[in-house]
Protein 1
Amino acid sequence: MNCNVSECRKTQVNICGQVMRISLRRICKLFLVIVTFILALVLISVTNTERIQTKQIVFTKFVKRSYRRQLSLQKEQQVVDHIKFQRKTNGVNSVADDENLGKDEIVNKNGKIKQNPIQNVKNVMRKTVQSDIFISVKTTKSNRNSRLDLLMETWIPLAKDETYIFTDNDSHIPENFHADHFINTFCADSHYRQGLCCKMAREYDIFMESEKRWFCHVDDDNYVNVPALVGFLQQYNHSDDWYLGRPSISHPMEQKLAFWFATGGAGFCISRGLADKMVPHAGGGRIMTTGDIIRLPDDCTVGYIINHLLKVPLTKIKEFHSHLEGLHRIPQHQLSDQI
């Protein structure tokens, strides 16, 4: 009997020991899980902080660059106005006709006359040429064979230096095309708001890094009449606020508010002066943020920024066309005038 009691006690001790070891293992595993979870949270927090700081730095650069450009445009416009007045007073027909216009007299804030070189003024006063235009083509990998290849065989070779192609998940650069003009955005390849706004944000940001006068967006099912586009933009001052395009509906977009937007299906053009003012709402990827706020696609988001936030009207251009129209109704003798 004593032997059985002793054995029972030993058994109980062994069982208790096993339970304690199992419990200790579980506690250690739980502790490791908690520590790993905390470290993951810290890592995510640090990563997000770095991303936010990077975005802030990029956005700050956009704002500073835009502000400097606006100041430069204002100064150049002062010189232009002064030259026009001097030419009118002296009866000068062109800048090249008067050697004294090589250095122009400008009155500074103190009222003193100083000599100011006008090398950039001739550039401001000249007409827009094809190289002043940034043409962005939005496409996707699934449309490579059905659409993009057709554009490469038709109008893009006429404006190869001015055309930038924005795609997704496609690293195969078209033959005889500039490698740095073929941008893989790594955006979603869907036709939903997030992917569309992602591509538009890249288009805008890369245009802002250029020194071109006009930002013209088209889809991959558009044919662009390049000579007509150049002649058309020559009628407008790139330093002013111009939002040129064609709406797809006969009334303003209504999303708890009303605003006009130019459909991307017909293409639209934005002047440099207006693009600079869009920076707080569009620069550094902010087109995606604005699109998320109003929950509308890329062309609607651009219209919201320009027409609603900046109060710049849409100038409707009947020569812009989309697939929604009956293009067969355009008289044949007017085709060369369409953009």
Protein 2
Amino acid sequence: DYSTPEQDIPASALPGGRLWETCMTINDTWGYAKNDTNWKSVEDLTRKLIDIASKGGNFLLNVGPMPSGEFPQAIQERLARMGDWMKANGTSVYSTTQCPFRNLPFDGRCTVNGSKLYLEVFNWPSDGLKLADLDTQVLSARSLDGNEELKVSITGVVRTSGKNGPWVVSISKPSKLDSIATVVELDLAGPPQIAATNLAVLPEASGAYNLDAGLAEVHGKTIQYDWQGVRREDFIGSWTDAGDFVTWTLNLPAAKKFQVEISYACPQGNEGSAFTAGVEGGASLSGVAQATKGERDFRTDSLGELTVPAGLHRLEVRVTKLAHAQAMNLHRLRLVPVR
């Protein structure tokens, strides 16, 4: 199965490896509309393509021909300039897979093809391009446009007791920068391995955590992520096996107490399933799914207070009793600090 969001791009790769494709217009209209001249810029379109590729998706770009069968000049110009960028940098898009990082320290994206890691840098950092949390050795670096060899330097501990330690990889600035995206190819000693701390969900400025469905890891036989193009109405559904569960990774500098809220939908006739939300292998809170009007009619229940220990931990939601065919459609788990 697959998802086809329209005019929108998910915040991250879809959980469970779910296939997806963004369908988007080059202006605001499907097909040709004489008065619609709100064309997306070349930079915007190309960066959208890069963003989608970095999240493991496909990009279906709708272009509307005029009654004569020809494309408007504005479309021709944009496609030609996107093509120019792809001629120089297409290796970072074609046959690549999603970015293995959750958090990147620069303005851009990344993609992977085997032991090649591609960094698509939108704006070159003023203090230089750096990459943290990569546990695989970097053998060499080059810019795709111009094939310029770039210098790689490493700071921090490279090896600790035979294991990769915390290091920061710095890549020199190429002589030619692209205003759309400058692509750097890193040749690694093997497929990229990422430090577990990089996979943690980041908090809001308030210290609260929004553990959205789109950020979850899904575990099980039937459970899956569902998004058909409606912003903020995605969910983890098809929860027909009580053994299935979802997790999110957190990395707290110190133990903290949170008020836990859960948002879900449960169409009438499926209510009554019992569930827990808590720290994997630790404390948890319990709840019972209540009926809602439809599969996207989300309600929010407060489950109580939960203390999350310091360090790297996984938060999980599990079904402890399946009352009917499906447990619920899980939209979000939210952790709000208790002051």
Protein 3
Amino acid sequence: MKKLFFIAIALVFSFSGIGQTKAAVSFKGEIANRNTDSISILNKNNRKEIKKILVGKDGFFKDSFAVEEGFYMLFDGKEYTELFLKNGYDLNLTMDAQKFDESIVYSGKGALENNFLAQNTITEQKYDYDALLASNEEVFMKLVKEKKAADFLKLDNQKLDPVFVSLQKKSIEMAMDSGTEYYMEGLETKKLNGVMSPSFDYDNYNGGKTKLEEFKGKYVYIDVWATWCGPCIGEIPSLKKVEEKYHDKNIAFVSISIDKLKDIEKWKSMVKGKELGGVQLFSDNDWNSQFVKDFHITGIPRFILIDPNGKIVKADAARPSSPGLEAELDALLK
């Protein structure tokens, strides 16, 4: 997941809004092994649908629509890819939906910019962000500087639309700045390792309240999550398997929801419907809960591992889906 972190950050920041005088974008293409009978062009900022285009059974589609010059997303019902569109483009796409990114090729007017984006996605997926985020501060800053320079150089070496270049450079800068902020927050989080954990006293799904101190003498693996968080829900099957494997070991599994108070019934319903195990707690003030703030939690899911004496083993522990988690727990619980 961390490998895609900077990619995700880059998708959050987009720049559009330069009006066009020509009528529309012409967009056509052929999609092999299509996922659905349509594709959607989405606003890159809020993912609202700008245009829905029907795809025939033979995989062919064709449409035209007016846009503001800038970045958009194409969604095929399963995956996303980034587009740069401006009125006057006559763009043709060929793609195999089963291979997706690796198969995307554009031709026609606007192909240069969009092929650049398609290839850049593949390049970013291969970049070792895990190593970057695991490096010390000096090395991290050096690598970020080098990556930014290399990314800018690729743009300078192409005969690309100048507006595209300008917007892409701004996107790179904001991605790097946000990634650096994330890294620095991580350094602060690591400083918590080895110190006594902040406590909590939260409502328990089964009734009453539960404090961290009640688990003294056991390791505690904490999952901070919310019902609206897709990645959190995606970890549930793996968490259940981990809970099952260690159910008779000296470890407690505690899940803390940071849903808003108005959604407490939704939380209860999900706990029951998904048959969530472990100890299910509801925080007292969502993101502003003191426990959440003390652990510098700005994104979820977040997993925390605490030892039997109440000291933090890892303030940002491995996820249940991570192969490294069971190896770590095996070593601690042997």
